[in-house]
């Protein structure tokens, strides 16, 4: 198999563009990297964005729900939990409206740029892919749901299990117990 993401710098924050979530998850599996996925389509404010990231990345309960705490979770806390192989991070549908304006979007992306620099200094790949929110599906269409009534991790039709996305999180209890 060809090396996934060989043309993408190992420590970068960039638009998702030609990459699909399923392809990025497969690349993470192939490379042995953590795969972190957050769908922010329902977020309306900074607080919503932070809460969705916390829930979907399975951040610890004591997460402070501010940008400083997000940076700490993406860097120090994970670093203290043991050796890391690398990260592929997806922030899909970052809100683009007046309640989460350009400045807030740049602050969010700066957190991930700073995290990429942090991991670069430690020679650990950290690739973050993002997209901005676009027009929602036409009215009348029902959201796709899985059998256990848990919403899909994306509003696109993809074969990505929400359970598999969570299992890849470096924020699970094993890491936190090891770090304690």
Automatic annotation (TrEMBL):
Gene3D superfamilies documented for this protein: Barstar-like
SUPFAM superfamilies: Barstar-related (SSF52038)
Pfam family, one: Barstar
InterPro entries (UniProt xref): Barstar (IPR000468), Barstar-like_sf (IPR035905)
Residue ranges constituting the Barstar (barnase inhibitor) domain according to the UniProt record: 34-130
Family label: Belongs to the barstar family.
Protein name per the record: Barstar (Barnase inhibitor)
């Amino acid at each position: 198999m060809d090396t996934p993401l060989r043309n993408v710098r190992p420590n970068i924050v960039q638009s998702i563009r030609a990459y699909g979530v399923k392809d990025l998850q497969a690349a993470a599996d192939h490379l042995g990297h953590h795969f972190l996925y957050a769908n922010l389509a329902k977020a309306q404010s900074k607080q919503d964005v932070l809460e969705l990231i916390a829930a979907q990345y399975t951040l610890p309960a004591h997460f402070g729900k501010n940008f400083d705490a997000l940076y700490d979770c993406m860097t120090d806390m994970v670093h203290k939990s043991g050796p890391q192989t690398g990260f592929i991070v997806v922030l899909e549908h970052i809100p683009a409206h007046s309640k989460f304006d350009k400045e807030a979007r740049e602050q969010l992306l700066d957190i991930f740029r700073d995290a990429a620099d942090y991991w670069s200094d430690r020679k650990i790949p950290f690739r973050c892919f993002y997209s901005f929110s676009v027009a929602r599906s036409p009215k009348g269409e029902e959201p796709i749901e899985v059998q256990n009534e848990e919403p899909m991790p994306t509003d696109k039709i993809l074969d990505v299990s929400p359970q598999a996305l969570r299992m890849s999180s470096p924020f699970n209890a094993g890491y936190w117990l090891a770090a304690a």
